[in-house]
Amino acid sequence: MKKFREIISVVALICGLGLAFAPAANAVNVFDPCIDSNGNVVDSAVCKNTGDDANNIIKTVVDITIYAVAAVSVVVIIISGFIYATSSGEAAQIKKAKDTLTYAIAGMVIAICAYAIVNWVLGYIT
Fold it and tell me: What ranges do the domains of the chain cover?
C-alpha cells in the first residue's frame, strides 16, 4: 500500500508540473465571419487559418510532459542517492533507495519511449 501511495504521489507531482508549464491558451472567436458588413476581409486567425493544428498542440504537450518527467526523475534519482548515502547500512533503507532509483529510471524510459512513439506517429501522419 505504501508503494501505491508513492506511485500516486509521483504521478500527481508529474501532472501538477505538467500543468504548471502548460502554454497559455489563445482564444479565437470561431463565429467571427471572415467578411465584415462593408465587404472587407477580417484580419483574424480563423480567416487566415494560422492557428495551431492538432499535431502541433499534441507535440507541444508531449514536449512539456517529457521535460517535466525528466526533471522529476532527476530529483527522484538525487533523493534516492541521498537515501542510499544516509542509510548507514540499514537493509530497509538500502532497499527503499534501490527501489526508488529503479522506479525513477523506469519512468524515464517509459516517458522517452512515449515521446519517441508520439513523434514517430506525428511524423508519419504529416
Answer: 2-22+53-125
